[in-house]
Design goal:
- This protein has 508 residues and is mostly beta strands.
- It has one domain (4-416, 461-507): monomeric porin ompg (Porin, Beta Barrel).
- 9% of the residues lie in helices and 47% in strands.
- The protein is built from 3 helices and 28 strands.
- Strands 4-10-11-13-14-15-16-21-22-25-26-28 form a 12-stranded antiparallel β-barrel. Strands 1-19-18 form a 3-stranded antiparallel beta sheet, with no helix packed on it.
- The longest helix has 21 residues, at 72-92.
- The protein is elongated and about 95 Å long.
- The two termini are 31 Å apart.
- The relative contact order is 0.19.
Amino acid sequence: MLSRGLLSILLLFCFALFAMSTPAQTVSTAVCPTNSKLICTLPEVYGPNGLQQGIGPLRPGAEPPGTTHHGGHFESDFISSLGPLNAAVGSQLTLLPLGSPGSGLVYVYDPTLKTFTASTEDLGPILTERANTTGRHKVRVGFTYQRFSFSTLDGTSLHSLPATFKHISDPAGDFTNGIMTTSRCDPANSASNTGLCGFVRDRIDTVTNINLHLNQYTASATFGLTSRIDVSLAVPIINVGMSVSSVATIINNSNTTDHQFDPAKVPSCSASPCLQGSFANSSSATGIGDVVLRAKGVVWSGERAALALGADLRFPTGDEQNFLGSGTFGFTPFAVFSYSARVSPHANVGFEENGNSVLAGNIIGPTSTAPSTLTKGHLPNQFLYSGGVDVVIVKTRLAGTFDLIGQRVLNARRSTVTTQSFLGACGPTGLVPVDSSNSNGYCTAPDANISQPALTETKGSFNIINASLGAKVRISDKLVIFGNALIKLDDGGLRAKVVPLVGASFSF
C-alpha cells in the first residue's frame, strides 16, 4: 500500500496534469495603449503614444487617406521586432529562483532520548534541496529577500540594445495627394524597392536603455506529515520596476523629405527636418507572485545518505501582465540525493512543465481600426539540475554552502542581437526627381546593402548557469539566519551579475 506522503505526491501530479491541459487561447481584451501595466511599457515607447505618433505629419499629400501621420508605414515592423523582447523579459522573470523551503534545522529521532532532536551537522542548502525532511509534526517557517538588478539579455547590455525598423514594402504603388495609384511605382522592381519605390529604403535605427529591477520577498512554511514526508508552501511578494528610454534616428536613404519626426510631438527635436527623437516610458508594480506548493518524501535512507522524490506545483496567482507571475500552472517533479556529515554533498534534478501564458505570446496591433490584443504562447519548459556541498565551519553554529545551479530552457523565443542586412541608400546621384518637391524619385543606382547589429527574434534552447555562495549561522536551537550571493557564470537569458539574498528560518 502507498504511504500517505507518496499518495499526496501522486494526487499532486494528477492535479497538475489536469491544470496543464488547459488549451492555448487568444486574449481578446484590448491592451496597450489603454493598459498601463508593465507588459505595455516596451511597446508603448514605440507605439501610437510614443515613437509612431512622432512620425509626421509630413508634406501635404504624403499621408494615407484619413490619417495625419506617416507612422503606419513602419508599424508592423515595430511590433514584430519588439514582441520577442517583451516576451523574453516577461517569461524569463518567471525563472527566478526561490529560497528553499527546506533550508534550516531538521529533526532526527534519538533512540537514547526517545525524542526528536535538532541535527548538529547539516543546516541545509539555501537555493537548492536536500533529501532530509523536517521531522514528524515539526514546523519550519522561513523568510528570504532577494534583489535582482538585470543587466544583460543573452550577453548584450540592456542599456544599449540596438533595434532597427524597416519601412514596409510597397509592391503596388505610392500615395499621391491621398490617392493610391500604381503609376508611381514600378511593380517589377518592388521586391528590391527600386524604381519609384526608393522611399521604402528609409529605416529607423534605435538604441534602447532598459532599467529593470525586482525585489522578491518570500515567506515559506514546511510541515512534517511523518518522519519521512513533509509538505511546503512558498508565497512570494514581488516589487518590479521598469523604465525604458530610446533614441531613434531616421536613416534618410531615399534622400527625400518623406520621413521625419514632428517637432510638435517630439520635444527633443531641434533640427529641421527632424531625423532624431527621444522617447521614454516607465511602470512599476507590487503584488503577490506565484504560490508554490511542494511535497517531498524520502524513498530510501541509509546511515547518513538519503534519496527523496518530490514535486512542486506552481499556481498562477501573480499578475502576469505586471510581470509578477507566470500566468499559467507549472509542475516540477524532482529527485534529491544528499549525504549528512561535516561535509554534506547534495544533488538535485527535475523537470518543469509549463502551460500557456501571454508572457510567451505576442502583442498584436494596435492598428488604425482596432486596439492591440494579447495572444498566448507556451511558456518554455525547463530541465533543472544542481549540485553542491554544505560545510560545517563551527560545529552546531556556522556552516558554509556552495552550489552550481543550472537550467536548460527548452525551445524558447529569444530576442538576440545579430548582424542583419538592410537596403543601401539611393545616394544623391542615384535619385531622379519626378516632381518639383523631389519627394519621390527613381532610385536608379542604389548603394549596396549594408550589414549592422540589430535586435532580432530567434527560437531555441539555452543554458542558465549560476554559482551560489552562502553561509548560515545557528542563533539558537530554533533560529537560523543566512546570506547568499547568486553569481552568473554564462550569458544565457535575462541576467543579473550578482543576486544577493538574506533570510531566516525558525523551527519548532
